[in-house]
From TrEMBL:
Pfam annotation, one family: AA_permease_2
Keyword Cytoplasm: no
Protein name: Amino acid permease
Keyword Plastid set for record: no
Upper classification of the organism: Bacteria, Bacillati, Actinomycetota, Actinomycetes, Micrococcales
Membrane topology of the entry: Multi-pass membrane protein
Single GO cellular component term: membrane
Length: 540
């Protein structure tokens, strides 16, 4: 069995030109920056900083954000090189297929489906909760702090314990329609909401610094005892994998707390890789994709650090724990504002609206990323080929987009979605690992092909500096963050991968285009290579 058979870079690009499976190029660099900012800045910027500060790091949450941002920046460089050189849909899945083979590509594609589908479902469910909160804040109904609904609210009881979230379903229907009509139109809509969201975030930072108290930054790195936790290992399931194997103390407070906090706040950065899934729909992708990925991530990182600094100066970890019924687990930036005795009353309303707007763009871009990964896997035959047909009118996979919307709506409308953020974290980090290690492999393959053809590498695509050192460091850094996630998350992750193996060996291996049409793939490779570097056929 050829489990590591690779789809050539050139054949991958050639396949994207099939008339029935071709995506329209309509996005520029600014569109990609907006996509990146819109999906990254969501509920995480309002909640993760406060929760981690209260339960793991204290004011040192700033360092956790810096660490997570650096790791993401390294991975972003690797994504930028792949997406610039291979401007096709699929992101990490497509990159892994070309550099490490089909089985690895299936694993990461299956993993990305997990990440984006459930992340979209969880965020959409959270959108419904914040929709009720906004209605309550403005006196229109919704659900109050006591859990009592009044007036207009999102959740309708159908009897027998079954509920229906009508507003959430309406949101997903609208977003699926926008994405089906055209990616350019949807990015314009996202751009408007992102501008509003950024304005609110900047306002929150300004108001937060108005209540900044430097004395609350001490101690900057609290000990584990200050969190009410003595040294020890705790439950096997709640230990980080690093603590489980190394015997280190609980990752709360001190250096280990900062590192574990970086693994947790990483969730707030998730989404910049979705930009790479839109590479096939981008004009001049070799220039615009790297700018979009890195530009969007840079803006988000700066804002995250400013929010975490403002938060740390507004409330101590103990104050955040005392103000929440679960010891800080539900602490948000709103909690910090409520602790200020003379805070303006409009702050809560602004933050509530900001979160609602932010979640709208997050759901939209996650739906885009999900369908583009499934689209690429379908085009390669690893999933049913019918999923990769595009509309001649709109140039988008309309049936796939609508189908994904229906499934996400069903999950969010009828079921209590409770997926841990760490599950999404581990899926994303595993993708980052494969992309990072794939960069040196991709360059090696291309150098060998060009050497065999007697040609020099004249590509003008973006390249990661100091390769292979920097990509290897990126991969190792992502692995380190994965080790900071708990044992229970790892077990769930391995179970999901096991299910993926069953599907791959039961369906995908036999139906892969590489398995069914190896000669056609080889011909595509030769023709594309001849056009790219001007040779008749690579010498053996």
């Amino acid at each position: 069995m050829q489990l590591l058979r690779r789809r050539s870079i050139e054949a991958t690009i050639a396949a994207s030109d099939e008339p029935e499976r071709h995506l329209r190029r309509s996005l520029g660099a600014w569109d990609l920056v907006v996509l990146g900012i819109s999906v990254v800045i969501g509920a995480g910027i309002f909640s993760k900083a406060a929760m981690v500060s209260a339960t793991q790091t204290g004011p040192a949450v700033v360092i956790s954000f810096v660490i997570a941002g650096i790791v993401c920046a390294l991975a972003a460089l690797c994504y930028a090189e792949f997406a610039s050189f291979m401007p096709v849909a699929g992101s990490a899945y497509t990159f892994s297929y070309a550099s490490m083979g089909e089985l690895v590509a299936w694993i990461i594609g299956w993993d990305l489906i997990l990440e984006m589908f459930f992340a979209a479902g969880v965020v959409a469910k959270a959108w419904g909760l914040y929709f009720d909160n906004v209605l309550h804040v403005f006196g229109l109904g919704g659900v109050g702090p006591d859990g009592v609904a009044s007036g207009v609210h999102n959740t309708i009881s159908l009897g027998g314990g079954v509920t229906f979230d009508w507003a959430t379903v309406l949101l997903i229907a609208v977003l699926a329609t926008l994405l089906s009509v055209g990616t350019k139109l949807s990015t314009r809509f996202t751009g408007v909401l992102t501008a509003i969201k950024l304005g609110i975030v900047v306002l929150i930072i300004a108001v937060g610094f108005a209540y900044f108290d430097a004395s609350k930054l001490s101690p900057f790195v609290p000990s584990s005892e200050s969190f009410g936790t003595s040294s020890g290992h705790g439950s096997v399931w709640t230990q980080t994998l690093f603590s489980f194997f190394s015997g280190a103390d609980l990752s709360v407070g001190g250096t280990f707390g900062i590192l574990a906090g970086a693994g947790t706040v990483f969730f707030a950065f998730i989404g910049f890789d979705v930009v790479a899934t839109a590479a096939e729909e981008t004009r001049n992708p070799r220039r615009n994709v790297p700018r979009g990925i890195i530009g969007g991530l840079l803006v988000c990182t700066v804002l995250y650090i400013l929010v975490s600094v403002a938060l740390s100066g507004m409330a101590t970890p103990q104050q955040l724990r005392d103000a929440t019924p679960d010891g800080g687990e539900s602490a948000t930036i709103v909690t910090a504002f409520e602790l200020q005795p003379d805070a303006p009353g409009w702050a809560t309303k602004v933050i509530a609206v900001g979160i609602l707007v932010g979640l709208t763009t997050v759901v939209m871009v996650l739906m885009l990323g999900l369908t583009r990964v499934v689209f690429a896997m379908s085009r390669d035959g690893l999933l049913p080929r019918g999923l990769s047909r595009t509309s001649q009118r709109f140039g988008t996979p309309v049936h796939l987009q609508v189908g994904a919307g229906v499934l996400i709506a069903a999950v969010t409308a009828f079921f209590p979605v409770d997926v841990l953020a760490d599950m999404v974290n581990i899926g994303t980090l595993s993708a980052f690992v494969l992309v990072s290690f794939g960069v040196p492999l991709l360059r090696t393959r291309r150098r060998r092909a060009l050497a065999a053809a007697g040609k020099a590498d004249t590509t003008d695509s973006f390249q990661v500096p100091w390769s292979p050192a920097l990509p290897i460091i990126s991969g190792l850094a992502c692995i380190w963050l994965m080790l900071q996630l708990d044992v229970e998350t790892w077990v769930r992750f391995l179970v999901w991968l096991a299910v993926g193996f069953v599907i791959y060996f039961g369906y995908s291996y036999r139906n892969s285009q590489l398995h069914k049409n190896p000669d056609d793939i080889a011909a595509d490779y030769r023709e594309a290579l001849q056009e790219a570097i001007g040779v008749e056929e690579p010498r053996r």
